[in-house]
Design brief:
heterodimer; A: mainly alpha; MetI-like fold; 2 domains; B: mainly alpha; 13 helices; elongated
């Protein structure tokens, strides 16, 4: 087990190395190079020359790359052009917000998706099945930012039930030890602050959860349909195994493998979706910050954030692969 | 999106031995099964309508693309909505543009970006996939490593980052979305070709002394494109949504009043309280277009799937 994890982590290194090469030359391929990006509107030939000199952009590219990579390995990802603060710090400040949002969205997607997919499969061909199939098709094609708009309009503007922006109301007196607001509230016993943070999470999380939810419903349904007619399920029934045991240990457990794979793949979708959802709800996570950085052509932030996101994406998928062996002992590869 | 994740199974190009079939042709069979599927019909109708509206936009749209004929009717806290002013059946936006005209012109923009980016993605993916699948060995390893690197970044994020570097132009958006699709197509074509490579007829061709290039072009490629075509149809749906997302984030370029569905949503944000239809209408358009391609793509996949084909 440990060896498998170790091998997977080692395999990650060349991929990440390749990504740094790509990200480095990507920015160097810009018309005018990184100096023009730094200067923006103020880019005169003299100013570009000065910046090139100061930052070493006129040195040979391989040399620049080695220097840049060396700094990355020491944890120096450069400073944001916009905020002038270290990229790593900006990421660390905002990452908890996005994790909270993504976890909430995943809880919704899995918590609703698996039961719904299961019921749809058990009612194969009936109304509930058709409704869930149609609903999940719409869920897949609805643009995240459009759905976010509609949720905001209905629940925040029209009904006024839920807040439409931010992570916590201004007036709430809260201590932020970990920057995970919900966790902070629970740890410090300020339950009203935790509740306030959860309420702020609801709308963005629903918007973010929709596509994963639709995909999970579809995969669960298809997977359960495949398993439900298997010989061992029939044998179990014939032996008089109770309905609960058939459902939980025969059908669900065997149907979960493709579902878990899908959940792992959703991680990427959640991060991409966060860029759009956080923008609509002015939610101060990495997504909204990245959207601003992209618009402002803040390349150190773009490079750093893409790298961090790639690492988290890879780690999540590694976790998913490890979880296989807990769900299905047959997968325990040696 | 499911379109991106779902890797269809490789269809068997010729009928299974001993299975009587009304038509010997694979594509004839696919077409017959498509005709029997209501979802395929709905998808085909929606897609045809979308293409028709896009192509006929200059005829159908009451006003030119960037026109602001309703500029005089705007008030800071009020914009005429659908049905309120006869000249503007779907209301006007903050620039004084006719919403109906902009939706029609927007169909053109979406179709153009969707088709062009999928074409770029398909082209890049096919070249890489074909090289990897045809040669195998170190070429395969090298190409697949590059594909892995691209896949290590979530695809919309990849598209957004590329567009950010290329600058704010519609062409940049097309290329960005296209490049983000390359890994999917490359992987699909490669795996499909690798399966074909081991088959008896390829061995036979090789025994007859045919070169790698010839075998690739006449045997491997034509027999491997099935799943790629299915994926391309599904990818069109994703591309339309992604194009809207990128221009929603301000990457499309052009003037603010450009008739583009994603852009219309960006500006609708400020008027959500007084003019919600400005967000609602373009959103519905994006959804319907994406739904059409998805229905068509999934019906196509079902029709080509060897597991369900033996009906």
């Amino acid at each position: 087990m440990l060896r498998t994890i170790g091998r997977r982590l080692l395999l990650l290194i060349p991929t990440l190395f390749g990504l740094t090469v790509l990200l480095f030359f990507w920015v160097r391929a810009l018309p005018g190079g990184p100096a023009a990006a730094l200067l923006g509107e103020r880019a005169t030939p003299e100013a570009i020359e000065r910046i090139n000199e100061a930052y070493g952009f006129n040195r040979p590219l391989p040399e620049q790359y080695i220097t840049w990579l060396g700094r990355l390995l020491q944890g120096d990802f450069g400073n944001s052009i916009e905020t002038r603060r270290p990229v790593l710090e900006e990421f660390a400040n905002r990452f908890p917000a996005t994790v909270e949002l993504a976890v909430m969205a995943l809880i919704l997607a899995v918590g609703i998706g698996i039961p719904l997919g299961y019921w749809a499969a058990r009612n194969h061909g009936r109304l509930l099945d058709h409704l869930s199939v149609t609903g999940s098709l719409i869920g897949i094609t609805i643009p995240v930012f459009f759905l976010a708009f509609m949720l905001k309009w209905v629940f925040a503007v029209q009904l006024g039930w839920l807040p439409s922006t931010g992570r916590q109301s201004r007036g709430v007196d809260a201590t932020h030890a970990t920057n995970f607001y919900v966790l902070d509230g629970i740890l410090t016993g300020e339950l009203d602050a935790a509740l306030n943070a959860i309420v702020h999470l609801l709308l963005p999380a629903i918007a973010l959860a929709t596509i994963p939810l639709a995909i999970i419903v579809r995969i669960t349904r298809a997977s359960v349909l495949e398993v439900v007619n298997a010989d061992y399920v029939r044998t179990g029934r014939a032996k008089g195994v109770s309905k609960q045991v058939i459902r939980n240990r025969f059908v669900l457990r065997n149907a979960m493998l493709p579902v878990v794979t899908t959940i792992g793949l959703q991680a990427g979708l959640l991060i991409s979706g966060a860029v759009l959802t956080e923008t609509v709800f002015a939610f101060p996570g990495i997504g909204a910050f990245l959207a601003d950085a992209i618009f402002a052509r803040d390349f150190p932030v773009l490079q750093g954030f893409v790298l961090f996101i790639a690492v988290s994406y890879a780690l999540i998928n590694l976790l998913v692969d490890i979880s296989y062996s807990f769900i299905d002992p047959r997968v325990r590869i040696q | 999106m499911s379109a991106a994740e779902a890797i269809p199974t490789v269809p068997v190009p010729e009928g299974d031995a001993g299975q009587p079939r009304r038509s010997g042709s694979f594509w004839g069979d696919v077409l017959r099964r498509l005709r029997r599927n209501p979802a395929a019909w709905i998808g085909a109708v929606v897609v045809s309508l979308f293409v028709l509206v896009a192509l006929l936009a200059p005829v159908l749209a009451p006003y030119p693309e960037l026109a602001t004929p309703g500029a005089g009717l705007r008030l800071p806290t009020y914009l005429p909505g659908p049905g309120e002013v006869p000249d503007f059946p779907l209301g006007i936006d903050r620039f004084g543009g006719d919403v109906l005209s902009k939706l029609i012109w927007g169909a053109q923009a979406s179709l153009l970006i969707g088709v062009a980016s999928t074409f770029f993605g398909l082209l890049g993916g096919m070249v890489l996939g074909a090289l990897a699948g045809a040669f195998g060995g170190w070429v395969d390893t090298l190409i697949m490593r590059v594909v892995d690197i691209l896949l290590s970044v979530p695809h919309l994020l990849l598209a957004v980052s590329i567009a950010a570097v290329l600058g704010r132009t519609p062409l940049a958006v097309m290329i960005a979305i296209g490049v983000a699709q390359v890994p999917i197509f490359a992987r699909l074509l490669r795996s499909s070709m690798l399966q074909q490579r081991g088959s008896d007829y390829v061995l036979a061709a090789r025994t007859l002394g045919l070169g790698t290039g010839r075998i690739t072009m006449t045997h491997l490629l034509p027999n491997s494109v099935g799943p790629v075509i299915v994926q391309a149809t599904l990818t069109l749906a994703t591309a339309v949504i992604d194009a809207a997302a990128l221009s929603f984030l301000g990457l499309g370029g052009g003037r603010p009043e450009t008739a583009e569905w994603g852009r219309m949503l960006t500006y609708a944000q400020a008027e959500l309280a007084i003019a919600p239809w400005l967000a609602f209408l373009p959103g519905i358009c994006i959804m319907i277009a994406a739904l059409g391609f998805t229905l068509l793509g999934e019906a196509l996949r079902e029709a080509m799937d060897p597991r369900t084909r033996k009906r």
